[in-house]
Amino acid sequence: MRTSRSRRSGASNSSLLLAGWILAASAQPAAAQALSQRGFVDARGAWFPQQAPNDPTRGVADLVAREEVFARPSGWLRLAAGIELRVNSHDQVEDEWRLDVDDRGRRRPRLALRRLSATFTHLGMSLDVGKQFIRWGKTDIVAPTDRFAPRDFLNVLDNDFLAVTGARGVVAVGGETLEAVWVPRFTPSRVPLLDQRWGAASPVPTLLAVVDGGAELPSGPQTGIRWSHVGRVDTSLSFYDGFNHLPNIAARAIVTPPQVQIVRVYPSLRSYGADAAVPTRWVTIKGEAAYFTTSSPDTDEYVLYVVQLERQTGEWVIVGGYAGEIVTARRAPQIFAPDRGVARSFVGRASYTIDPNRSIAFETAVRQTLDGAYAKGEFSQGRGQHWRATVAATFIRGRAGDFLGEYRRNSNLSVGVRYSF
Amino acid sequence: MNSTLIAALFAIGVGVGLQAGRLPPVDDARQIVAEAQRRTDARSQRYEGLLQVFDAKGKVTDKRWTFERLGSHGDSRAVLRFTAPAEVKGVALLVVNHRDRASDQWMWTPAIERDRRIALQDRSTRFFGTDFSFEDLEERDVDQFEYTLVGDDAVEGTPCWKIASTPKTSKSSQYTRSIVWIRKDIYALVRIENYVRDQAMRRLTYADLADIQGIWSARRMEMTDLRRGSRTLLTLDKLQYNVALKDEDFTLQAIRRQ
Fold first, then answer.
1. Which of B60, B98, B117, B135 is most worth mutating to test chain A (most A CB atoms within 10 A of its CB)?
2. Does B211 touch chain A (CB under 8 A)?
3. Lesser CB count within 10 Å: N end or C end of chain B?
4. pLDDT category, B123, cuts 50, 70, 90?
């Protein structure tokens, strides 16, 4: 694996530049033709009743402003651009005022390019080039085949997707779709900050200072191909070759000054996946599985699978199932892997629409060993065309050695207000 | 009936066997329905819709969508995309209608960048907080139903045929039967009442009829959920027929694009 040591990079790539050039070149006709936008300003505060050993802060406030613009200058070309501005009370946002384009920073960028892409279409073919969101798979909470979807895990249980930069070609004929993806520049998931409550515990008990040693980011491309069939049963087969966007954690002792550096290493990863949705008379059965292999030493090989039942009845949408894991080669001493962390669990999600403006939602994952569990409840109330308020409570319990249990002091109550435009 | 309905809201499928200008025997319910269907034939259509959802207390919630349909009745594809309120902008529904079976439906939610197939057993649920169910959004073939002429009636003083419709055993539907009212003078649908067993569940009324490009079209439709006491008023703006639309814009890939 070729790697390049990187703590931050403002570099763009050729795909991104291409998309930017097209957007600029097409701005004039786009204004006169199909142009749409969506955006919001979201203010949110979270209160943690318990103090964490590595983080005395109990209140965190966050402000996000996002604007996305979509243009269709001609029948065969679509353009998308999105930008995001963040402010945070707990040092989760970088101080610099720069436009971040690659989401590689340890902290969230203050100003980020969320997406910038051009889509070319012709008959049943399309090509998306630039910074874009690519989602694979069918299941919720855990999606083993969703390999081009890194996330921002500064809050492990309330995370958001990050875009990747590359090209995606799609050919659709009838109910068959073939999709090929090439991502030349790696985008890692953003992991919790070491000195904050969602940060992983030190892998080695030590009296030395534990510091962030940065990340070793791979420089090679990621590729994937997916065939999907839509019919009475929806099925997909996928192949991915690249790197895990979730890191192995390496602890390195430094003599001068004496300290332990925590370094994030992103191992090579190859996965063979499949997913299916089977509607039956009473429920839709969804399944998704992937087998992960690697050429990197000190990295596990494993199978992740999910089986879930889904039903929408009345005002309820109910999803419940099981996420499982089979480790075929256990080598990694320490990892940060929320997808595997929530495996070997019973998972569920339910939402109820009270009326056009109000809804409640509930989500849970309970480890089969009962070593860890979380439950989230949320009430949401809209007002008028623009405003929505949300109150949410998250309860986390478990043992220290469990992925979920280690966050047992992070139960929290949050309140958010969003203005959409 | 008019084909402006969110994809021909009710079980009125393709017109068959009737020639233009020839009226059917008035005691043949199926032919009345087929003639009503034939008079709304269009290769495609497009409109901008304003949805006003009135709850039981009279509180109003507005939503807007754009609607495009391509293809003939019973064998068409439709895309419905929300444009307001702001928080649901971009949410889209793709409906692929089939002559011989229920439609396929997928919903695209941009907030999670994911599409979800609407399973057949989920079609009776309300569509995005409105009083329309997912099933109400699909177009169905005339041959999937049996029709019986119940008699004559008047809606707002206009003479109508009153026709009972029941799904054939091969047809999956939340409704046990429906009663439709079709105007005798212009063969336009003006009211539908949908029943589950003997209980009326939803009533759809059509108003503000106008001749648009030779097709009698309702520019206002109101769906009432008779159990909840809520109703949704759909007002159609910029309604056009036979507009130039492309096949490739009516696919699962296409609804993912904004």
1. B117
2. no
3. C
4. confident
Closest-CA distance, B23 to chain A, in angstroms, reads 38
Number of structural domains in chain B: 1
The domain of A185 spans: 3-420
E strand spans, chain B:
44-54, 60-72, 75-84, 92-96, 104-109, 114-117, 145-155, 158-167, 177-183, 189-196, 199-212, 215-225, 230-241
Given CB atoms, is B228 within the 8 Å cutoff of chain A? no
Q: Which residue spans within A356-409 are E strands per DSSP?
A: 358-367, 372-383, 387-398
Tell me the pLDDT tens digit for each residue of B202-227. Answer: 999 999 999 999 999 999 999 999 99
Q: CA nearest A226: which of A301, A281, A168, A311? A: A168
Suggest the residue from A37, A309, A355 to mutate for an interface test with chain B (most B CBs closer than 10 A). A355
In a domain, B4, yes or no: no
Q: Which residues face A26 on adjacent strands? A: none
Report whether pLDDT(A301) > 70. Answer: yes
Contacts of B253 in chain A (CB under 8 A): 126, 170, 172, 177
In this prediction, residue A280 has a pLDDT band, given cuts at 50, 70 and 90, of confident
Give the residue from B156, B209, B213 showing the smallest Cα distance to B187: B209
Q: Which residue has the higher pLDDT, A68 or A21?
A: A68
Domains contained in chain A, number? 1
pTM above 0.80, yes or no: yes
Contact list, B118 vs chain A (CB under 8 Å): 312
- Spatial distance between the Cα atoms of A188 and A246, rounded to a whole number of angstroms: 7
pLDDT given for residue A293 in this prediction: 97
The reply to whether B119 touches chain A by the CB within 8 Å rule is yes
Q: What is the pLDDT of residues A371-388, one digit of tens each?
A: 999 999 999 999 988 999
Residues of B in contact with A357 (CB under 8 A): 61
> Which pLDDT band holds residue A200 (cuts at 50, 70, 90)?
low
Nearest CA in chain A to B112: A161
Alpha carbons A118 and A130: distance in angstroms, whole number: 6
Contact B117 A284 (CB under 8 A): yes
Tell me the CA distances in angstroms from A339 to A264, A335, A361, one per residue in order. 17, 11, 21
Residue B86 lies in a domain: yes
> Which positions in chain B touch A418 (Cβ < 8 Å)?
87
pLDDT band at residue B196 under the 50/70/90 scheme:
very high
> What distance in Å separates residue B104's CA from the closest CA in chain A?
9
Q: What is the H or E stretch that residue A113 is in?
A: strand A111-122
Q: Is residue B225 part of a domain?
A: yes
Beta-carbon contacts of B30 under 8 Å, excluding residues fewer than 6 positions away, are B142, B147
Name the band, by pLDDT with cuts 50, 70 and 90, for residue A27. very low
- Across the range B243-247, mean pLDDT stands at 92
The answer to the question of residue B5 being in a domain is: no
The CATH number covering residue B107 comes to: 2.50.20.10
d(CA A196, CA A219): 29
ipTM for the complex shown: 0.82
β-strands A412-420, A387-398: how paired? antiparallel
pLDDT digits (tens, 9 = 90+) for A309-365: 999 888 899 999 999 999 999 998 889 999 999 999 999 999 998 888 899 999 999
Calpha distance A378→A350 (Å, rounded): 10
Residue-range definition of the domain harbouring residue B202? 29-255
